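Practice problem 4.
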């Protein structure tokens, strides 16, 4: 039975085709063992070319969601659980999806780092934060991004939870790519330097609540940059001066 498929925006290409078919398989619209529509039909309904369809099918086949039988067609696999490697899946993820998961990880990590971080961990964080600041002052955006990401990775390592740290490192690879897209210069890194210093201060003083507070501000910042909703970023020093 033919199923209506809403055409997708052309700019999404193979990844969007994968997401569309993966969703339909997950919802049971195509059941295990069932044959998918032929290439020409998918091309017409999804509004993409033959190479895009073939690339999408290759990705789905590598993930074990479909199997291709030469001369017979493409069939939904008997095991429809998603076996696609996380690193591969993240390459297809939207920026906001990656950022949301990174926020969840970060909030737990900073609390644990505040409780478990060692003097050696603290020294590494201080060194990376100083490197981040120096690169931002020099206007070196790539060095700023690398130092920023490594600073947050060092916090993840200080959490002393290897699984959390490994997950964060995996997501940090995509965050690096994401930061390159949304930060044309180092102004945001300069603007949030004191937020990072306050976060580090919470970890140094083993104050998980303070660390959590500043991390919450920091992790929301990239998406605010992307959407143009960046709040006024007064430094903690300026706030203290006004309060005094």
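Answer key:
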């Amino acid at each position: 039975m033919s199923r209506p498929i809403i055409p997708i925006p052309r700019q999404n290409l193979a990844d969007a085709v994968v997401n569309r078919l993966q969703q339909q398989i997950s919802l049971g619209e195509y059941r295990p063992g069932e044959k998918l529509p032929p290439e020409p039909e998918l091309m017409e309904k999804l509004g993409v070319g033959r190479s895009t369809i073939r690339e999408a099918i290759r990705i789905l086949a590598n993930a074990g969601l479909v199997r291709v039988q030469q001369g017979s067609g493409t069939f939904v696999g008997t095991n429809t659980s998603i076996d696609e490697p996380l690193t591969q899946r993240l390459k297809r993820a939207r920026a906001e999806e990656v950022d949301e998961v990174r926020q969840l990880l970060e909030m737990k990590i900073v609390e644990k780092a505040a409780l478990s971080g060692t003097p050696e961990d603290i020294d590494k964080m201080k060194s990376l934060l100083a490197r981040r600041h120096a690169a931002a002052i020099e206007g070196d955006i790539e060095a700023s991004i690398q130092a920023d990401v490594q600073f947050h990775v060092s916090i993840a390592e200080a959490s002393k939870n290897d699984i959390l740290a490994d997950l964060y490192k995996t997501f940090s690879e995509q965050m690096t790519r994401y930061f390159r897209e949304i930060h044309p210069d180092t102004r945001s890194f300069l603007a949030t330097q004191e937020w990072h210093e306050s976060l580090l201060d919470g970890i140094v003083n083993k104050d998980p609540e303070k660390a959590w507070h500043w991390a919450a501000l920091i992790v929301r910042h990239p998406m605010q940059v992307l959407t143009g909703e960046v709040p006024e970023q007064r430094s903690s020093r300026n706030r203290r001066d006004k309060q005094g």
